[in-house]
From TrEMBL:
Xref: SUPFAM superfamilies: Lysozyme-like (SSF53955)
Domain spans labelled Transglycosylase SLT: 176-225
The protein, known as: Secreted protein
Biased composition (Pro residues): 316-328, 336-346
Region listing for Disordered, in residue ranges: 30-91, 261-358, 578-609
Pfam family, one: SLT_2
Organism, scientific name: Streptomyces ambofaciens (strain ATCC 23877 / 3486 / DSM 40053 / JCM 4204 / NBRC 12836 / NRRL B-2516)
Record keywords: Signal
Tree of life domain: Bacteria
């Protein structure tokens, strides 16, 4: 839900125009990418991106968030928005387990998506704004929140309208979606963005390790480089589509970049300001329509009910903090009531998703790629009504299924795409892994039970169409000896180096008889035994392959080593085993150049007189 900036100004507004201008000038002087006009209104820099993505496409569904800002005496530039009244001691460090989760997520993303340049401080900033760092660090040693953190139901009454997509599994609400967990994911986004951050075999939005890693992957999609300000702004806006949200997160990001410290779990300071109604610690309770949201049992055994983002359930012996007064409606002095929510009367507006009857293949055929290559064709799916009419603005989830390491660009196995005006959703490009064989990509409608549409894809092994020796030295050996030179070859495909191509080397009887030879040169296995066929060999990144050392038995002659590659390239290498030639004896007649010729001792052949 977009923040109500004017409401926050009313909450702590000063009564004179001069004071208002002073406050605006102070905010503007300390805000990244924010300026103020002569009337104290904030404006963004010309290059500040905006996002027109619908609520169901954001991480949080544009749910409410905390508006507390870093303290003025922080080592960072001062907050971007708000008034002096909202700049209290809102930051007292980051709880130990929560901080560990942020740093582990950064480390993993540095490994898997180095081009994203995700800083852990960004996760900390979003975690602060979304849930007050998991309600001040109320998590167990494994990172599970002590009680669920659940935002208000997104039923269209003051919030976005997002109907249930998870049958209440995560949010306990089988009618509408609620944002859940310390990073406040809506279930439909978690379904494709969720990751297992603590290696326990499951992804849980109520676990800070899982939620932090998932938030990192979410922010790193679309090839964004978060070291670039424009990409950073776009990523934050995609999390919650509000300029005020963007400025608040950027303020905390700068604050954490200047330094923070670790504090014990459960001792964090809870935020106060809220973007929806500013009711401090309590926040809006889930509407009665949040069926099934009956709470969860924490580590102490106490049952905790569903809570709004950042709401803290007091632990044993802790008093419940009083809720600050609700903002008044100007001119009346009385609290401004929220419109009541009647769960029995859901909005009658039919969404595009409600009209989808089935999915159709929008022309995708022949999904085949060589291992390591990108599939040339992208998967296209069309959403249609029962009458066959195309349906736009529908969220389609594409999921890679099967024993494969193929994934969409960026390494994700799941992607969510909205259909265009023609009802077509085009999945991101598929990238083949090293595992060969078939797998499935399944398209489903997010938020509606419609039969999925499966696409079959195949990964074939890497190939080479040519292979040749890199040297021309004759390969010779004496019986029972070893060849001095090792065989090195290079494989190419269409003239380019063919990397990771499988090569088989076999010592054969002859060019005309490719059966494995039973005598002559041989390789040795790890145990020193004779081997005349080698499999599992692969070229390196430059297409090169150096074979193991070759040995010879006592058989002399000329032999053939045949190398074949995936793709059919063949090379015959000649090997020669022969006795060493003796050194020629010196000629005694050449020992002394002055020596006189010796008289002949051969018998005379002339007849006797």
């Amino acid at each position: 839900m977009a923040a109500h900036f004017d409401r926050r100004l009313r909450k702590a507004a000063v009564t004179t125009t001069v004071a208002a201008v002073v406050v605006a000038a102070l905010s503007a002087s300390q805000a990244p990418d924010v300026t103020a006009d002569a009337h104290g209104r904030q404006t963004t820099a010309d290059n500040m991106p905006t996002s027109d993505a619908p609520s169901e496409e954001s991480a949080t569904g544009n749910s409410p968030y905390y508006t507390d800002l870093p303290p003025l005496n922080s080592p960072s530039p001062a907050p971007t928005i708000g008034t002096p009244a909202s700049r209290g001691p809102a930051e007292a460090g980051i709880p130990a387990t929560v901080l560990d989760a942020y740093k582990k997520a950064e480390s993993e993303l540095r490994r898997t998506k180095p081009g994203c340049n995700l800083p852990w401080q960004l996760l900390a900033a979003i975690g602060k704004v979304e849930s007050g760092q998991a309600r001040g660090g109320r998590v167990d040693a494994q990172g599970n929140t002590l009680g669920r953190i659940i935002g208000p139901q997104l039923d269209g009454n003051g919030f976005a309208l997002i109907k249930d997509t998870d049958n209440g599994v995560y949010d306990g609400n089988s009618r509408y979606d609620n944002a859940v967990g310390p990073m406040q994911f809506i279930p439909s986004t978690w379904a494709w963005a969720g990751r297992d951050g603590n290696a326990d075999g499951k992804d849980d939005p109520n676990n800070i390790y899982d939620a932090a890693l998932s938030a990192g992957h979410y922010l790193c999609r679309n090839g964004w480089d978060l070291s670039v300000q424009a990409d950073l702004n776009r990523a934050i806006l995609s999390y919650n589509n509000s300029q005020d949200y963007l400025h608040t997160v950027l303020s905390w990001l700068e604050h954490y970049r200047k330094g923070t410290h670790e504090i014990p779990d459960g001792t964090g300071t809870l935020p106060v300001g809220r973007s929806d109604d500013g009711t401090g610690l309590t926040g809006p309770s889930p509407s009665p329509g949040a069926t099934g949201a009956t709470g969860a049992t924490g580590a102490t055994g106490a049952t905790t009910g569903p809570t709004a983002p950042g709401t803290s359930t007091p632990g044993p012996g802790k008093p419940t903090p009083p809720a600050p007064p609700k903002p008044s409606d100007p001119g009346t002095g009385s609290p401004s009531p929220k419109p009541p929510t009647d769960p029995a009367t859901p909005p009658t507006t039919e969404t595009p998703t409600d009209t989808v009857h089935h999915l159709e293949n929008a022309g995708t055929t022949g999904l085949t790629a060589i291992a390591g290559d990108t599939f040339t064709q992208k998967i296209s799916t069309r959403a249609e009504t029962k009458a066959g009419q195309s349906v736009g603005k529908v969220r389609i989830r594409f999921t890679v299924i099967g024993d494969t390491d193929a994934a969409f660009t960026g390494g994700d196995k799941v992607a969510a795409v909205t259909t265009n005006a023609s009802g077509v959703a085009v999945a991101p490009a598929l990238v083949a892994g090293e595992k060969t064989g078939g797998f499935t990509v399944r398209a489903t409608v997010i938020g509606r039970t419609v039969a999925g549409l499966d696409y079959r894809a195949t990964v074939t092994e890497r190939v080479a169409d040519a292979i040749a020796r890199t040297g021309a030295t004759a390969l010779t050996c004496t019986p029972g000896g070893e060849f001095a030179d090792r065989v090195e070859v290079k494989a190419t495909h269409k003239g380019a180096a063919a990397d990771k191509v499988a090569v088989t080397a076999t010592l054969i009887k002859s060019v005309l008889d490719p059966v494995e030879s039973d005598k002559g040169p041989y390789f040795k296995d790890a145990d020193g035994k004779t081997v005349r066929t080698l499999t599992g060999l692969k070229t390196d990144a430059k297409g090169l392959l150096t074979l193991p050392k070759l040995y010879a038995d006592d058989t002399t002659g000329t032999f053939v080593l045949r190398l074949t590659t995936a793709g059919g390239a063949t090379l015959n290498v000649q090997l020669k085993v022969a006795e060493a030639q003796p050194e020629p004896s010196p000629d005694p007649s050449t020992d002394s150049p002055d020596a006189s010729p010796s008289p002949s001792t051969e018998p005379s052949t002339e007849p006797a007189a």
